[in-house]
Amino acid sequence: MKSSLSIIKIGGNVIGNESELAKFLSLFSELDGLKILVHGGGNLATQIFKRMGVASQMIGGRRVTDKAGLEVITMVYAGLANKNIVAKLQANGCNAIGMSGADGNAIQAHKRPVKDIDYGFAGDVDGVDANLLSRLLGSGLTPVFCAMTHDGKGQLLNTNADTIASELAIGLSGMYETTLYYCFEKNGVLRNIWDERSVIEHIDPEIYQELLNQGTIADGMLPKMTNCFHALKNGVAKVCIGNTIMLAQNENPYTTLTL
Ligand SMILES: Nc1ncnc2c1ncn2[C@@H]1O[C@H](COP(=O)(O)OP(=O)(O)O)[C@@H](O)[C@H]1O
Ligand SMILES: CC(=O)N[C@@H](CCC(=O)OP(=O)(O)O)C(=O)O
């Protein structure tokens, strides 16, 4: 029987809130079993772009990244956000190791081809090195991934953190029974975005289509849901979306997705 592995993705609004981040990292550290953390930081990057007076464009929940933008992104995601989270996990007794896709060649990707839109230095994932990650996990380390990959030719690529989480979960599902958790600032996928009590507890492809038709799902939730179903179709055992408190396994409702 395969052992269990939790892949947990933490959203940008949690990273940007010191007390929420502390609460999440404490829950994450206490979680039993093998685990990998993936963090975004899109909001933090947007704030820093603004402070620097540099424009930054999002299309369909994905960032258009030019050369100057990639430099900022690298400093914010692989530097500031990643090292801060790793240091805080160490303080919680969790032996975390900060990773990008380039480190250990853990995630191979290619620059997204230009079709209707040129996303610039945005990466599409080709594969993950499950053996490397298994060795790290086996030696008691907890990998913490930022939203960056590389193309193997020296080019770093900005890669949606939700995509990194789902590709890691898929890549490791041959070796482990993988559960993918998307933790963000809301209680789950909401029927009414202004009402935290309106959590949709179960979504399958049919309900998903209805929600899309009704316009209930928008912005960053669009790529998140695409990633969820992509993961389920490719060997991931379970996918959940909810608040950080979801990890405490209490009575609070959250969203579970199924095929
Ligand atoms: N139906 C919905 N339920 C919950 N959030 C939604 C919904 N539709 C759109 N959203 C938006 O999607 C955002 C989450 O996407 P994103 O910001 O990319 O996630 P993350 O915080 O994980 O980085 C929420 O902050 C919310 O504004
Ligand atoms: C290509 C692309 O869209 N990259 C994302 C990576 C960060 C991210 O996904 O952060 P959140 O999870 O906090 O949204 C971006 O730069 O915003």
Automatic annotation (TrEMBL):
The entry marks the following residues as binding substrate, namely: G41, G42, R63, N158
Q: What class of enzyme is it?
A: transferase
Known EC number(s)? Answer: 2.7.2.8
Q: Which CDD domains match?
A: AAK_NAGK-like
Molecular function (GO) terms for this protein are: acetylglutamate kinase activity
Subcellular localization, as worded in the UniProt entry: Cytoplasm
Pathway involvement of the protein, from the record: Amino-acid biosynthesis; L-arginine biosynthesis; N(2)-acetyl-L-ornithine from L-glutamate: step 2/4
Q: Annotated site (Transition state stabilizer), which positions?
A: K9, K224
Going by the entry's taxonomy, the superkingdom of the source organism is recorded as Bacteria
Major subcellular site: cytoplasm
Catalysed reaction(s) here are: N-acetyl-L-glutamate + ATP = N-acetyl-L-glutamyl 5-phosphate + ADP
Residue stretches making up the Aspartate/glutamate/uridylate kinase domain: 7-243
> Pfam families per the record?
AA_kinase (PF00696)
Which keywords has UniProt assigned to this entry?
A: Amino-acid biosynthesis, Arginine biosynthesis, ATP-binding, Cytoplasm, Kinase, Nucleotide-binding, Transferase
Protein's job: Catalyzes the ATP-dependent phosphorylation of N-acetyl-L-glutamate.
Instruction: State the similarity comment.
Output: Belongs to the acetylglutamate kinase family. ArgB subfamily.
Q: Which HAMAP family match?
A: ArgB
This chain belongs to which protein, by name? Answer: Acetylglutamate kinase
